Amino acid sequence: MQIKFHGNFKNTILVSICLLSGLLVSCKDDVSLNSPNGLVVILKADDMGDVGGNWNRFIQILVDDSICAGIGVISKNVHESSIPEIQKIANIKQKNGYPVVEFWNHGYDHIDLKPNSEITEFYNTDYNYQRTHFRLAQHFFSDTLHITSHSFGAPHNRTKLITEGIIESFPEINVWQHYGKIEQYTHTGWKDPKLRVIQETDKRIILSIDYLSLKSFNVESFEKNYINDNKKPYIIIQIHPATWNEEIFVKFENLIQFYKQSEHHATFMTPYQYYESMHKKLIAN
Ligand SMILES: [Zn+2]
User: Fold this and answer.
1) What is the Å distance from ligand 1's center to 174 Cα?
2) 236: helix, coil or strand?
3) Which end of the chain is more exposed for a tag (fewer CB within 10 A), N or C?
4) What is the whole-number distance in angstroms between the Cα of residue 228 and the centre of ligand 1?
5) What is the DSSP letter of 156?
6) How many domains does the chain have?
7) The model's pTM
8) pLDDT at 280
């Protein structure tokens, strides 16, 4: 049976299921009940060091189109002269009070220690190495940028089991963006809203990436995937604006316009904003 779940209808179904199941499990915090109607789009823009150039253009598009994105910062690559600009950008707000750009921890140096990503910052390195790098990045955010990083995404999306424990030891991290197909192990301390009910008490969510490292944006393929994507509580699109040329910028803007068409009911959110939206902390418009 094919049912296209939409907004209130989806909620009605879920409430009915809750009642029918005899309320064995409380549904009050069910992700779908808390989600806005329609698709949530999370832009995961990786590899920012210094601002300027393409990053300025990318952020200007976010502002002009009233959307938002998460930007993964490589702490070591941020030159001192960029710090005031990053702080200024972090203070640009959406209408709902959330930042237009959520800066998040994308590792301390993003260095490939072996070719072909055999050893990367959080992959096949030891516990102390990973913990030190994670801490350096978090402290760069808090001590230098005066911003709290609530989200993480590993360079190349490569991690090992030990990484999970390290991230969990930083309680300010609520969101881990991850590409599930690379490693198949179960994340015990993390819950993916695509798979599980998120309770009010869940401090950590894992968000799985749907579109990896696009070099170009073919709106037709997003259009084709839309019905399937719209069944999910959110989609993550991973991008690298620093490497874009004119053509890719234009295609990206076309994609944004596609999602902004009223019939698609898409809402853009940053990773932490999505986490908070599920915990009913949305600041009223
Ligand atoms: Zn990266």
Assistant:
1) 20
2) strand
3) N
4) 27
5) G
6) 1
7) 0.86
8) 67
